[in-house]
Design brief:
The protein is of the alpha/beta class. The protein is 20% helix and 36% strand.
């Protein structure tokens, strides 16, 4: 299989609210808008929230988690609080050496905000 591109598709019972959250509260830049949806840049990936594929109701049983790498998790935590984003767990260093913070989107999805310290092995991985 040759994969040419990929994106995460988030379904919501209230897609307009979710689009507003990712655009206005998180500040993700818009890659493209189309009748029935918005696609956001998320680093080297894309997040799409479509209105034409509405969920009947929020899926509170979903295991979907969005992992977003940032330069400074503490600064993002401050920014999130200023924008009214729920910070479920403050940034802290994990046993595997990454600094992680948890936030929540309006549908209850966990967003893991990750900072990779300068001395972490992921910085040296050239694969």
């Amino acid at each position: 299989m040759e994969v040419l591109s990929s994106r995460v598709l988030l379904l919501s019972a209230d897609p307009e609210r979710l689009q507003s959250f990712y655009r206005d509260s998180l500040g993700l830049p818009v890659y493209r808008e189309y009748p029935g949806g918005v696609v956001f840049f998320a680093g080297n990936g894309l997040v799409e929230i479509s209105s034409h594929m509405k969920a009947d109701e929020p899926d509170t049983t979903s295991n979907a988690v969005l992992w977003l790498q940032v330069r400074d998790a503490d600064a993002v935590a401050r920014e999130f609080r200023e924008r009214g984003v729920t910070v479920a767990r403050e940034p802290r260093e994990e046993p595997w050496g990454l600094i992680e913070m948890h936030a929540t989107d309006p549908d209850g999805r966990t967003l893991i905000i990750v900072q990779i310290p300068a001395d972490h092995p992921l910085r040296a991985d050239t694969r």
